[in-house]
Amino acid sequence: MAMRHDMEPTPLQVKLDGLAKAIAKLASAASFLLLLILTFRLVATFPGSPLSPAEKASKFMDILIVSVTIIVVAVPEGLPLAITLALAFATTQMVKMNNLVRVLKSCEVMGNATTICSDKTGTLTQNKMTVVTGTFGENSFDDKNPGAADNRSSQFAQRLTKEQTRLFIESIAINSTAFEGEGGEFGFVGSKTETALLGFAKTVLGMTSLSQERTNAQVAQMLPFDSSRKCMGAVQKLPNGTYRLLIKGASEILLGYSTSLALPTGMIAMDRGRRNHIATVIEDYASQSLRTIGLVYRDFTQWPPRGTENPDDPSVAADLGLLLSGMTFIGVVGIQDPLRPGVPEAVAKAKHAGVVTRMVTGDNVITAKAIATDCGIYTDGIVMEGPDFRKLSDNEMDVMLPRLQVLARSSPEDKRILVTRLRKLGGIVAVTGDGTNDGPALKAADIGFSMGIAGTEVAKEASAIILMDDNFSSILTALMWGRAVNDAVQKFLQFQITVNITAMTVAFITAIQDPDMRSVLTAVQLLWINLFMDSLAALSLSTDAPTDEILDRPPTPRKASIISLTMWKMIIGQAIFQVIATFVLHFAGPKFLPYPENEMRSMIFNMFVWLQIFNQYNNRRLDNKLNIFVNIHKNYYFIALNVVMVGAQIVIVFYGSTAFSIVRINGNQWAISVVIAILCLPWGCCVRLFPDRWFEIGAKFVGKPFVVVYRPCARFWDRVMAKMSSKKHKSEKDASDGSASEDSTSYKGRGKSSVETVHVSGDAEKGL
């Protein structure tokens, strides 16, 4: 059941839904107001008018077309295309960078991630494990530190007795699920921890053949890995008829189950001094970022021991937990797993971007803390173990979580709880996982990353993105592309809303002012600007690759507006420039330019289109930085699409006179159109230099009357639509119930049940 989760709308979807509703309301209001004003003006001319009824109807249709065009212009038809293209482009590029996106929306959600809960092994580290240190009784070796040249593993092996060597080899070879193969560093295939131990047994202890060792041993039972006790076991029948339980696992846990210590001369009791000495060795290994694996055993006269039988199969033991007592401690090894190159840098970049990285691992707390320190994850926060984490109440957990940096000795359920609580605190959480048991945590997270190399099929199916190289640095790539997707949508909105405001204002005012009630931009021209130009702009603004600058800002909060203050400043600033330019050319142009009306209208249309072409460059940035041409030479899509737009506009001006109600214009008129339009670029610099704080104060002052009027009208409209929707659903339900009742009655007395009746009646089935 933990793997079943409903698909929640993303923060971007929620924000766009609210924006779309607001635009629809405003466009409908503007369209209705324009229709009302122009209709009254038309009706006022009817008395004494020489127009025939057909001509009057034609006039009204022209008014209706202009009013409807207002709605068409206001609705951002290119927005779904912009989102789809941004996601498609991002996912295509992410595959090349080892991120296989399975759930499309996860890409844009990752852009606002606030927390990454990462596994250690294979994600932060290379998963190339080797045994570099070890302590067995009174003997030890150190292949890691340069100062221990006289205490290498080769010298250690010479000090071992034949019985000790045989015990070590059996503890490693029999109690293992790895097997020999052609691949692998040591020719073994399986868990990297087990292959590291088998490599040690082969190269240092002299094990000849793994398959031969297992063939010679009489294995009575294999006890699989127990995630709660962090160990696994195997039972070997000895030549004398007794049974030996061999256990390997977390060294500090197995030390707690041990009551004796294996030495060359035999077993001795595990007193406090020896226990403290071994615990100190384990801590020393762990502090060097080594994974510590302990080996213990216990002999039994019969198998399974009395009282531990499995009810379903009395020939085997039921539970590993019933056997873990009175163990003999053989020794402990330290396994090195180097950090992946670039991980500390990636963690630092994520931190710079406002994203907290937390390590969630099953390793010893000291090992986890040491590696987290090397990665840059652990600074001055909290390090906690899974058992302690599980004891916390929800309130205690919520207080502790903001400072938690490392969760050690954790189980998959601990990871799921951690993800769930972080999300309830308002975070957007990404989590990594590779095992079958990680499925619930991957599903519970906003973005689940599975491992493409080491991950199980269950983990991959539960995840949203697959890291094909199992590398933490690839998560940073996903973060950057996720932000690029959000930026692409915002860039398009910044561009589209500027066009919408300008076109609506120009069409509304010029239609009211014109004696013939015609807009300076015809319906066909507005549709060209809105449909074709905006669609190509959606394409061009959706293909900018992320730069390192994208990590210089924190994640956007869930409740933050999709249109920021800086974006509104650019939208309003450019809309003012475009409206003024259009009005000056339309109202004042005939006074200082000796051109006929049809040529002036053609110039205005041409200028308006070029304004949108040049304004795309302004909208390549969402901040107040002035360099709008950054990396433009790398974006071949943007360049190519701009060439297409320019070419299409030239063709229309020269050959689209009939369809677009324009005439050809000469070189001077072309120059006037383009020069006025290109002025929007330096104007954009002026807008960016204008302080956001000043704009905010002005916007609050000017926009307050609008908000006062809009909010109650919007609430009234929502209530009306809700009532209409409720009545519609009620009528549909009544019709459905009536249809089912009627069909049931018509079959009454024919020996059919009501269930059978529904299956027989097609009408009832449709109604239900």
From TrEMBL:
Where does the Cation-transporting P-type ATPase C-terminal domain start and stop, copy by copy? 519-689
Give GO terms: molecular function aspect only. ATP binding; ATP hydrolysis activity; metal ion binding; P-type calcium transporter activity
Which keywords are on file for this protein?
Answer: ATP-binding, Calcium, Calcium transport, Ion transport, Magnesium, Membrane, Metal-binding, Nucleotide-binding, Translocase, Transmembrane, Transmembrane helix, Transport
Top-rank taxon of the source lineage equals: Eukaryota
* Biased composition range(s): Polar residues: 738-747
**InterPro entries, per database record:** ATPase_P-typ_cation-transptr_C, ATPase_P-typ_cyto_dom_N, ATPase_P-typ_P_site, ATPase_P-typ_TM_dom_sf, HAD-like_sf, HAD_sf, P-type_ATPase_IIB, P_typ_ATPase
Q: What does this protein do?
A: This magnesium-dependent enzyme catalyzes the hydrolysis of ATP coupled with the transport of calcium. Transports the calcium to the vacuole and participates in the control of the cytosolic free calcium.
PANTHER family with a match to the protein in the record? CALCIUM-TRANSPORTING ATPASE, CATION TRANSPORTING ATPASE
Q: What is this protein called?
A: Calcium-transporting ATPase 2
